[in-house]
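note to self: dont lose this again. the chain is below, predicted strucutre after it. 602 aa total, dont forget to put it in the shared folder this time
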Amino acid sequence: MTAPTAEETPRTPAPALFPDAVRLDALLGDPWRPDNPYGFAAGVARDAAGEYPIAFAGRLASADFPLLALPTAYGGALDALDGALVRIRVAARRDASVMPATLLSCSAVLTVLAAGSRTQAERVAGWVREGRTIAFALSEEETGSDVLANRCRLDATDAGYALSGRKWLVGRGASADAALVVARTAPRGPAAFTAVLLGPREMTGVWRQAAQPVTGLRGTDFADLVFEGTEVPRDAVVGTVGGGLAAAMRAQQLVRLLSTAACLATADTALRTVLRFTHGRRVGGVRVADTPYGARELGVAAAELIAADLLTLTAGRYAQLSPGTFGLCSSVVKRAATRLTAAAIARSHALLGARGVLARGPGAVVDKARRDNAVVEHIDTSPFGVLRAVAPQLPGYAAPFTTPDPSGTDLAALFAFGAPLPPLDPAALDLSARPRDLVLLGFAEHAEAIAQALTERGQRRTAGLVRDVRAVLAATFVAATAAQRDRTRGAAASPEPLDLADRACLLYPAAAAALTWWTRPERGHYGEEPGGTGWLTAVLAVLLARAEGRDPRQAAPDLPPARRALTRLATARLLFTAHPVPLSDGPGDEDHEGPAHHEETT
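---
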């Protein structure tokens, strides 16, 4: 990047909150070096060849990275989820394919920990520590996101059970050492499914079809598993007969959260790449980053990434502090993080101009990030499945937003990123749809106090945005109540409940951002001075515009602080996250193919 302006000059960062992530990134070296096997160029080359990241996965294994799929109580490295998410990001920003290559076992492991016996938990923990992979087989091609219609059967036999049917696009299906399979054991209903754990011996009776090519995360085998009376012992049942789907859905709350680390990683790479490019390219003597168009697009993308970052960090702490109320947040974070990061990547790609279509240089790096991000959006839980989970919960929040409960909810620990957390307890995860979400209830209670605090600091614009977010959230919940009532009566509901769910998923991170600022004003987020609100104003303006169906670029007057924040972080070689995480990035050439200062002519 060229020399930063005064507003872009990084301030002296505070000590990193996530030292394990700093050490991991240093171990992997400068990703801009074309000869680094763990860098961007190597990731693009593997992607083009459809190669599995063998050496990269091995390097991460040497640092116990795959143990992030296993809580520390079982000999793993999953301690604090917010810290684990940051560690995953510094690895996946180089090549998101390393996530399925190293952490794919998390779905099966967390399902066992949520519902299985201690013996089963120790068994899967041993497999993970040995470097084995445990696939998770739930989806079926014919039924898609309608898992209640799944057909794969688990039938009782004299010796135990027999599996019959086919599971679709199973991650690492062609190479996994073991698998957790959710199959039908009764004719109908959510209690009609049972989870079974197949070890290496049982897997010899499974027919593995050839891996299917995918547009992103290339090199990962997504293969179907076919069962033709596969023998399963009685002690392979995880939890209770009929409790398999519930166990899997509880575990998916954590899996959805972990997958968002890949979304943030790909967006970090795309924006970091385009920041180098737009600061090194000029149009009419002006840096592309400083043109009205470039500055605006970078500002929107920065606000989108900041919103996703704060939401994910918050969710990481939420899952450990209050797992029993985490269900809604887990769905929201998957929908919002994938949607916001995809938008930020699209804006990054557009700013590359003609270089965005080249199969080398910055265009190839951003294109890979875009395709990898799109795959993450659809694995674990599809956008349709997420919205279907969110929509029924919205009416329950109409009352809290109409008549807030002044219970004095203590939210300090939720937003104390990097602070110690209680042990992760997957068994405490709950599928209840009762209105217990800490972020929504906390925002309903404290939004006016936040607005008043901002007003006292002279930030009337930001205070007004906080009040607007609260008002639109309240209107969304009231509309969801009316839509639910109309559906119950057989009347046509307007608006569509899933559209309301989508709106709520955009406003939720706005609430989280406001609460982040309010609970920790002494910290300067994203390189701003303590109490700084520039990033918050940009985030609220962009999210509110999107939730109301307006073009977020209309928030242009509010965007410069977000763009400057990301530029400061990039200049200081810090991860695009709320608090300093130093990276090993070298200065590098902007696009690895030409001079750093080039007059743009295309």
